[in-house]
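Sequence only, no structure available. Ideas?
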Amino acid sequence: KMVEPLHSFETEHDDMIHDAQLDFYGRRLATCSTDTTVKIFDVMGDKHELIQTLRGHKNAVWQVIWCDPSLGSYLASCSADKTVIIWKEVDGEWRQSKRYENEFSGSMTCIAWAPSSVGLVLACGMSSGHIVLLKKHTGDNEWDIETIDESAHDGGVLGISWAPLSLLDNGDDRILRIVSCGCEKVAKIHTQADPDSEWEHSPLLIFLCMCFRLGARRCVGAADWSREGHDRLLWTGGADLCGRVNLLSVSSLCLILCVYVCMFV
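Reply:
I predicted one. C-alpha cells follow.
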C-alpha cells in the first residue's frame, strides 16, 4: 500500500536533494543538495520556514547529520569537494566551527556522530577507503584528526555507523564499535577497547565477511545498529537485485545469525 506524505514543500534547492534529516526534537530539518548548499528549516506540523542557507562546500553535498543536543547545537555535512564542515549555531546563526579537507583522493562520502557520552567525535568515510575521526577538545575549538583505517574498503566507504556503547563481558570498560560498508560486498566492524588503544578489526570480521559476501551481490550501501537495547544487532542493505536486507545478531561468543528479512523485485 502506498503511503501518502503528511506534508511536502519546496526547498528551493537548485538541484537534486541527497539527504534530509530532522534534529533530535523533530523541529528543524536540514537538507543538502548537488547545488553545494545546506538548508535549515523550522518545521512545525504543516508549516515550515527557511532559517538559513549554509554555503561553504564547492561541490555536491552528500549527507547532513545533527549532533546530540546535549553536546551543543552542531550539524555536520560532507561533500564531493573532499571536505567535511562542522557547523555550530551561535546566537541563532550557523557558522563554520571546523572545516576538514582530506589529504587523499576522492570524495567525502559519509559521516556519523559518536554516542553522546563519547563527546564530540565525528567519523568520516571517504571514497579512497579511509576512515578518520574528528575529535573536539573540551573547552576550546580545536579538533584532533585520527585515521583509524587507511584501507577500510577498496572501492570506497559507502556507509558508517557507531554502535551504542556496551560493556566488556568481564569488566566495566567501554568498547567503541564502528561498522562500515563499501563496494566490495563487505561490512567491517572496527573496535577500540579503551581510549589509549589502537583501533582494530573485530574478530567477527571474518565471519561477517563470509555472511555479507554470500548475501550482497553488489555494493553494501548501508549498515546500522539497533538502538532499542539490542546493541549487537546490526542490519545492512545493498544494491542487490533481490532487494535483500541482512539482519545479523552478534553475540559475545562471535556467533552469527544471518536472516534475510526482505526480498522483493
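Residues 167-171, 203-217, 235-245, 249-265 have pLDDT under 50 and may be disordered.
Hope that gets you unstuck.
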